[in-house]
Amino acid sequence: MEDVSLCEAWLQICHCPVSGNEMKFFHMWKKIHAKFCEKIPGSTRTEMALSSRWKILNKELGKWRDALAKAMDNYRSGENLTNKMIQAQMWFGATGGGKKSFNHHECWEVVKYCKRFIIIPTGPAVVLNETPLRDSMTSDSPLDSPMSQDSPIEKEPRPIGRKAAKAKKAGNSSNNNSNFWRKLQGKTA
User: Fold this and answer.
1) pLDDT tens digits, one per residue of 100-135
2) pTM metric for this prediction
3) CA–CA separation, 3 vs 109, rounded Å?
4) Cβ atoms 118, 66 nearer than 8 A
5) Measured between alpha carbons, how far is 136 from 131 in angstroms, rounded to an integer?
């Protein structure tokens, strides 16, 4: 409950259209503390305690946003919201060494539309016969890594282009002309 109230107070103060982001750190946390105390009367938390707790929450909420974004990018046809949430929990656990899961869903509901935490979907990678047609920018899966460089496929040299072929032909004809003039001058001299 305290974490949710902290998120609400942070959102109201930091996204205020009047003062915006022009407050100093100390003044901002003083205002957040006042809003927090309005929501939870009799709280013993100080401005610095709230600031320290926000650092932890901010980091967790950022990791959760990234995990949800990866789950959305990895969406497969026929999956539902539950599958996406399970996959996001797996991504979140992987970033923390697999030791914990995300427990701040109420806080997420408060801040998820904030500019800092909003998820901009990029769409899934297009796949045809298990081969991606375009690179996925966010994929960290070892299954999605490109083939090794020592593959047996050899590249053939490119054929000569039209302009290069014309220049080569023109170079040979001018060579032939100069040789002809040399021979002609040699016979007359």
Assistant:
1) 788 888 998 999 888 888 887 665 555 555 555 455
2) 0.58
3) 12
4) no
5) 12
Domain limits of the chain?
Answer: 2-121
Distances (CA, A) of 166 to 170, 173, 174, 178, 180: 6, 11, 12, 18, 21
* CB 43, CB 1: distance < 8 Å: no
More confident residue, 34 or 177: 34
Take residue 157 and report the two structure tokens written for it.
């040299």
DSSP state of 123: -
* Closest to 108 measured CA to CA, from 152, 65, 77, 46: 65
Amino acid identity, residue 63?
Answer: K
Instruction: Report d(CA 186, CA 162) in Å as an integer.
Output: 36
CA dist., res. 61 & res. 103, Å (int): 10
**Which pLDDT value is given to residue 144?**
47
Residue-wise pLDDT tens digits, 12-71: 888 776 666 677 888 888 998 998 999 888 888 888 999 999 999 999 998 888 888 888
- Dist. CA 103–CA 84, nearest whole Å: 16
